[in-house]
Amino acid sequence: MLTRCGRTSSRPSPRPEPRYLAASVGSIPNFARVIFASFAPVMTGWALDTTQSFSLPLMKCACVTLAGALGYPQLVRQPITDDE
Predict the structure, then answer these.
(1) Torsions phi, psi of 8, nearest 5?
(2) What's the rounded mean pLDDT across residues 12-26?
């Protein structure tokens, strides 16, 4: 735990600090995004071969992006603050 002057304190923190967990917690959805992003070209190519049009694959991408944008404010309600 860092003190205000930048030195570490000798007493252990009773709970993990949220700012230190941000990278660990953020890596989980980042990993999921990478996995799903690697399947996106395959699924787009399959939909293109099936329909012979880019309209349906691009509309699906737009719908998923819109759903993510609308869901973001519901998932992130408060910023992580330093409550020292």
Answers:
(1) -80, 145
(2) 66
